[in-house]
Amino acid sequence: MTESKSSPLTSELYEYMIDHNPPLDPVQRALVETTRSLLPESAHLQVAEEQAPLLAFLVRLTGARDILEIGTFTGLSALSMAQALPPGGRLIALDISEEWTAHAREAWAKAGVADRVELRLGDGLESVRALPAEPHLDLVFLDADKEHYVDYWEEVVPRLRPGGLIVADNVFFHGEVVDPGASPAGEGVKAFNDHVAADRRMEAVMLTVADGLTLARKRND
Ligand SMILES: C[S@@+](CC[C@H](N)C(=O)[O-])C[C@H]1O[C@@H](n2cnc3c(N)ncnc32)[C@H](O)[C@@H]1O
């Protein structure tokens, strides 16, 4: 068995990491707090706090101008990526819940990025299939229904520009990916991880960020 060199993430170490990352801005912080107070049952769906600056970093690093987000919830990940877009850049956000994304719309407006974000409500897979078929996306953040991660991947890869990036969240699915009795969502993520690892069109690395995060670049060679 390969030995891990990862330091166990104690609460103290986690706080230390948060303290040494770019802090959430006031709109982002308020969104985290509103989500926790108004939606206590569902707040766990929100991306981890450290993922907001990471996503912004990836947008700036790649210079992404055309971003697709699949799974928006109350809008923290989209907010963070939209704030990092260059002038003229845009983000299409997909979700099925009008109720949850109402909070997202409010936060985007408060942060002054509503003009660069387009929310499309409905089934995510149908919405992706309705996008132009040719390569036009620079970055895709995949964070919706886990049972369909492989289907999303298959729709998104051909629409990604060469060199484009897919960021997939929850690739550990709370540890279920190594559990023989995984839930349907856990099985969906397991199938996704195997699918990604075998896909020669992409170069992918799986990282121990929050609940597991895969970064995959479309080969241009
Ligand atoms: C983990 S949350 C997304 C968290 C979000 N990225 C954030 O920053 O807080 C997953 C989202 O996927 C959405 N979702 C679930 N099934 C969906 C579907 N079939 N089509 C589109 N969205 C879906 C849910 O409504 C939920 O808001």
UniProtKB/TrEMBL annotation:
It comes from the Bacteria. Transmembrane segments: none annotated. Coiled coil: none annotated. CDD domains: AdoMet_MTases. Gene3D superfamilies: Vaccinia Virus protein VP39. One of its GO terms (molecular function) is O-methyltransferase activity. Keywords: Methyltransferase, S-adenosyl-L-methionine, Transferase. GO terms for biological process: methylation. This is O-methyltransferase.
